[in-house]
Design brief:
This protein has about 550 residues and is an alpha/beta fold. It is about 65% helix and about 10% strand. A five-stranded parallel beta sheet has the order 6-9-10-3-11, sandwiched between helices. It has a four-stranded antiparallel beta sheet with strand order 2-1-4-5, covered by helices on one side. Helix 18 links the parallel strand 9 and strand 10. About 40% of the residues are buried. The protein binds adenosine-5'-triphosphate. The site of adenosine-5'-triphosphate has 17 residues, from helix 13. Adenosine-5'-triphosphate binds next to helix 13.
Amino acid sequence: MSNPALTSEDRRALGGLLSAWGKAGRGPSLAASAAGIAQYALFIGFAGFAASAIANLVNGEDFLIPALFAALFAFARAGAQAFETRAGFEAAARVKAHVRGEAARALAAKGPAFTERLETGAAGSALTDAVEKLEGYFGRYRPLMPVIAGAPILMVAAAFTQSWVVGMLFIITAPLLPLFMAIVGGAAAAASKDQIAVLARLAGRFNDRLQSLALLNAFNAAPREREGLAAASEDFRQRTMKVLRLAFLSSAILEFFAALSVAAIAVYVGFSLLGEMPFDTGETVTLREGLFVLILAPEFYMPLRRLSAAYHDRADAEAAAGTIKPLLEYPKSGVSIVPSTPFHTSPSLDLSRVSCVYEIGRKGLNPITLSIPAGRLSVLWGPSGSGKSTLLKILMGFAPLSSGEMRIDGEMMDAPLAGRAGWIGQNPRLFHGSLRDNITLHDASIPAEMIERAVAQAGVADFLIHLSDGLDTPLGERGFGLSGGQIQRVALARALARDMKLVLMDEPTAHLDGEAEARFLEALLSNKNGRTILIATHSPAVRAIADEVFEIADLQEGGAP
Ligand SMILES: Nc1ncnc2c1ncn2[C@@H]1O[C@H](COP(=O)(O)OP(=O)(O)OP(=O)(O)O)[C@@H](O)[C@H]1O
């Protein structure tokens, strides 16, 4: 069964990845397989007793006892079936949770330098839709494999005890089914991979356009975009229909051949019972034996029919693994963020030949050497693209440190500063939640008076009086409801509420007008004592309040990248 869209090397790599993920759900998966085999063994018992009961009834003998046993076996089989399904779900749930956890850990390790370049819609679709597509593979397909190997052997053996002709018919017809399935399945797998890739692109596009709705309206581009999205959705619909068509086609082929095989067995049993067989098979089939193999026949093909339904699960899982894989790859440069405690006093920073090459191979910062004094407000100054933001991101652990040494208070820095320093980015993120939650980031250990002090010092108190519920006012996603300057002051309050002795700021006033900037700087100045503050900026107003100014391009070996 080959998927023409993937090379054999790709398939091996994805197969290896799927097997590695499968370990997370191995226990329930094995339990599901055992229950799967048990249900067919129980079915053989049921077929035996049911055939005896009917034969006895026809022959006027006691049929109640075998009928009772048949019912018992049927009941036990239903139990095994239910257990198999439950255990399959459990296995899939464990694997999905494992994969999402791995992806979240890898994304955290790659840090914002990677995620800021990520198409959020596509990544979101990979972590939700693509991970969901693993459900069928780990819940049905994998647990089914041992059943496919075990159950038909049991059934063939049972058939041979009654009729060698029927046993042979089973053996001959069984391999035909997967063969036809594979032919159609290959095309279905390619179509499914295609469909997942298109869905990821569509999700990315939709998410992008949603975020830029104001811009699109401003340029009257919304109708064009609407048409573009409609065309993309139509394309997706057609691809989905193609996947479904192929899936139905392969099921229909399988059903057809299974029905044909059952019919052949029925004809043989019928003719044998009537004594009308045109040739001698060397066996006589009794009513009980004939009924037994006839009851058994449809179930003999059942594991294969289930495999056919689940075959698409494998194709889906391979396609999904291909989408998820890039998110799981750990960064070569190993940016890792370890939780750590903030500084008690304002530290000094010494950087020696620190440089950064981003993962995609782009230079972010040429080697730079500089010393940031403790307890001072320092400004990084330089042209756009010279690496000011990158320098701050290296310190925080958001961008890779490719070479050089960083010392803090003279000691070698063994981990980036995330968690130990306050951080205010160019576009501070506010989340859906109350203003208080946005300041504390749900850290319940921050005392109420610290929050109040930070609110006052950062200038949040100035606009708090206009908010209906004060600190409990709910904020929309991305700070909807507050102005750019107000969002910037909330970000400052975030750093002050934790009384951070080291604060790094990346163009904190870039989006503020003169008045808002003045107010922000006023708040900053009244809080600068006892802190080391490092600001990357283009603003002359910020430069004017600095204790130290570092011309970044002059300090780099070879100038700006
Ligand atoms: N996440 C990233 N991945 C790859 N390259 C990046 C990334 N972020 C920045 N760069 C590149 O690194 C170089 C330095 O960018 P950086 O943002 O640090 O400059 P900057 O001095 O802060 O510029 P600005 O003043 O415009 O903010 C640029 O060439 C930029 O394209």
